[in-house]
Amino acid sequence: xxxxxxxxxxxxxQDIRDLLTMVLTxxxxxxxxxxTGVQGVAAAWEHHPVLVTVDLNLPDMDGLDVAWYIRKRSDxxxxxxxxxxxxxxxxxxxxxxxxxxxxxxxxxxxxxxxxNKLCPxxxxxxxxxQPGS
Length: 133
What we know:
Distance between the termini: 21 Å
Number of helices: 5
CATH superfamily: Response regulator
Largest sheet: 5 strands, parallel
Strand order of the largest sheet: 2-1-3-4-5
Helix content: 40-55%
CATH topology: Rossmann fold
């Protein structure tokens, strides 16, 4: 299978991080997973992913801040995956650069659908490059 590119997963819960990695790998992404916001920002700047998933409740910094730092240097699609389910939380997430918002608990199918909307599979997509890139 040709890779759809690198997806950066920023999630502190090991079980959820493993689930995200498994689902994203199955749909064709290479995955780089980290457990803190600081690691996530550094990895986004270093690896230039084609997609980033961000948990909002990280141990070292708020996921909204993580998104803000990533957004300063990249327009990569960001999928927020969080237990924060209030409408104000989603609006704050979108204001900080989220492309989509998925609340926990989620089903793998929901994750796959959200990812496919953010990063559609194209016939000539190889490592995140489109024709003419």
